[in-house]
Design brief:
The chain is an alpha/beta fold. It has seven helices and 17 strands. The structure holds flavin-adenine dinucleotide (FAD).
Length: 270
């Protein structure tokens, strides 16, 4: 099969494997040389239904994974798909996390954000980078990628749950704040709910540590044509300028941490 990127055309791919992560999250495995980087995303077309953006959870050049939470109509429809069914994939799109040899990084996530953070962790380890992996969830059952990260070896795993069922009781951002006081960290990467990432950006800035985060805005085309993901107040398109952006840029986006827009452009305040 041709190895070049898909550019903007969809490719019909068979779902090769589905890993059930928990009651509302599945990982879909496709065999295809997507050649995506950690932080980039694809547009997944659910035939006859809708097309939605999803971060690449892993890509080894031969197969790639998407970890998807069932949250509404499109993802509910996708969860009816079985191994052997086909979906359309466009991409990879957008910017990626940038890690350099010899660094010591902290990656922090909430929810499905653990998936792209796992991908960046694997890339970082291959470059000899030390990784602190922080992830939090409401309870133990909802913590994603914990066992996979343990399986990598050589990663310091920090967990938190709101109910204290495992790890620190409370927010994972509290764990980050403490960690940045105790260890010399070169960069923080974040992926998760917007309000969590805002807190991460502020904590990293206070500790004078560079921070990159994945900004998620409503996307339709994924490659800068439709204008749906234009952000206030700069008007730039998150699908092209992002989704991974440095905190020093994100903090200047007037809407970040305040509201997001739906398919019609209507504002929804957090
Ligand atoms: C760059 C990027 C990467 C993402 N990566 C993942 C991922 O790895 N795993 C995952 O489970 N989800 C991911 N999402 C979110 C995912 O796109 C939405 O959960 C999905 O589109 C929900 O559709 P729905 O019809 O099931 O739910 P809805 O009820 O329509 O929406 C549920 C939530 O998802 C948001 N959403 C819906 N459609 C879109 C859209 N087209 N673009 C952006 N947000 C949307 C809504 O604003 C709402 O907050 C990502 C979003 C972006 C922008």
């Amino acid at each position: 099969m041709d190895v070049k990127n898909f550019d903007t055309r969809p490719v019909a791919l068979e779902i090769k494997k589905i890993v059930v992560e928990n009651e509302s999250t599945n990982t879909y495995i496709f065999e295809y040389p997507l050649n995506g980087k950690p932080g980039q995303f694809v547009m997944l077309w659910i035939p006859g239904f809708d097309e939605k953006p999803f971060s690449i959870a892993y890509d080894d050049g031969k197969k790639f994974w998407l970890t998807i939470c069932k949250v509404g109509p499109a993802t509910e429809e996708l969860f009816r798909f079985k191994v052997g069914d086909k979906v359309g994939i466009r991409g990879p799109f957008g910017t990626n996390y940038e890690v350099k040899k010899g660094e010591h990084i902290a990656v922090i996530s909430g929810g499905y954000g653990a998936a792209p953070m796992y991908f960046v962790t694997r890339e970082a380890l291959a470059k000899g980078v030390k990784v602190e992996f922080l992830t939090g969830a409401r309870n133990e059952d909802l913590l994603l990628y914990r066992e996979r990260v343990k399986g990598l070896g050589g990663v310091n795993l920090h967990l938190s749950t709101d109910d204290g069922s495992v790890g620190h009781k409370g927010y994972i951002t509290h764990v980050l704040e403490k960690l940045l006081k105790e260890k010399k960290i070169d960069k923080v990467f974040a992926c998760g709910p917007e309000l969590m990432m805002k807190a991460v950006g502020e904590i990293a800035e206070k500790a004078d540590v560079e921070c990159q985060m994945s900004v998620e805005k409503y996307m339709k085309c994924g490659f800068g044509v439709c204008g749906q993901c234009a952000v206030d107040d700069t008007g730039e398109l998150v699908c092209k300028k992002g989704p991974v952006m440095p905190w020093k840029y994100v903090k200047k986006l007037g809407e970040f941490g305040k509201y997001h827009r739906d398919a019609q452009g209507k504002k929804h305040y957090f």
